[in-house]
Amino acid sequence: MAKQFLLFAGKEIDTDQQTVSVNQIVQMEGYSYPKYVVYKITKDQWGIDYKLINLRDYSFDTTSLIRPLSEKFGIGIYYDDENPQFKTNEEVAELYAKAQEKKVNQIEQERKEEKQREAIRVIGRQWLQENLPEDAQALIIACLKQDESDSQTDYFASKTVRTVILGFSKHQRDIFSEMRKHAGNFEETSHLAEYNEDYEHREKYSMGHGFYLGESYYCGWIIKKAPIYNRENIGNEFSFVAGNPDNIHIKTLRTEKKTTSVEIATTTDNLSFEIVDYSEKAIALFGDTRAIKDLLSAMGGKFNPRLTHNNEKQAGWIFSRIKKSELETVLNLKA
Fold it and tell me: Dihedrals φ, ψ of 156, to 5°?
């Protein structure tokens, strides 16, 4: 027999006992919370699972416990045991079709987004392979921290929302003067370039955050080192960062080789693109770019709705000529 103990209610629930039926409407605790319809009920050795469809956004959900509204206590999913409500088979079938369509669209969107992320990682791995010095022992990076702490529960945490590569180091020693030297490479961290003892944090102990330069580990920009123990691993770890040119702020970089081909036409996921030489220093990308506009922007492209192409005005993206090889790499990725 499967049971679930509700701690705050001081009650044990038998989850082997079915409480609602297929097509029945149930609701999350609270009047503003969404309602669901039960479209399927399954049972195994662990108890009963109720398969639900959210009536507000047509998302799927599952719960193993649905309690009567007359015994409401705390957060949970309840059914109205005095005036139960039901959907018809046809209504539930229609809701299920909508939920399935939404799920398929979400999977497809996630696949496209992951493909775009992988395209950026391909660029980043190539950039690191070409620009990471042979004698480099560490990256010097800046991280933008977002505070996710909860003072009421003494919970302290942060999330890194952006990482920028400021430079390379020939050693793995944590030296704050070296961090300050690279801080000026990026406008957002330039305030850390001047000596301030309060910004030097030495936390190389259990549960500490290592050596870092910054006002706080939980909020704002900090600078630290990322040791290189394996060049392939560091290339994978920072490929997404290096794939976005806005995340690279290094003063001395070798110049990328320029490409000389005049025009390239290609197709990606049934989307057609055309790259043309637009001026002496720029190339233009035309085609079905809406689906990859975020990627193109991350690569440094500038959208212009009134470019001239084939003697007429067309919308397109302008890139520096040195970006042509990167665009070729992205647009020729296969699913």
Answer: -120, 120
Q: What tokens appear for 293 in the block? A: 């506009």
Q: What is the DSSP letter of 34?
A: P
- Residue 263 contacts residue 275 (beta carbons within 8 Å): yes
| DSSP assigned state of 204 | -
Using CB atoms within 10 Å of the CB of residue 140, give its burial: 0 to 12 exposed, 13 to 18 middle, 19+ buried: buried
250-266 pLDDT, tens per residue? 986 533 433 333 444 55
Instruction: Determine the pLDDT at residue 176.
Output: 95
CA 215 to CA 222: how far, in whole Å? 7
Question: What is the rounded CA–CA span in Å between residue 223 and residue 301?
Answer: 28
Number of neighbouring beta carbons within 10 Å of residue 32: 5
Q: Whole-angstrom distance between the N-terminal and C-terminal Cα of the chain?
A: 47
Asked if residues 234 and 128 have their Cβ atoms less than 8 Å apart, the reply is: yes
Three-class secondary structure assignment of 225-268: EEECCCHHHHHHHCHHHHCCHHHECCCCCCCCCCCCCCEEEEEE
Give me the numbers of helices (H) and strands (E) for the chain, helices first please.
6, 18
At residue 34, what is the residue type?
P
Question: Could you tell me the pLDDT band of residue 224, with boundaries at 50, 70 and 90?
Answer: very high
**Confidence (pLDDT) at 84:** 94
Higher per-residue pLDDT: 148 or 90: 90
Most distant CA atoms of the chain, gap in Å: 77
Mean pLDDT of 166-179: 95
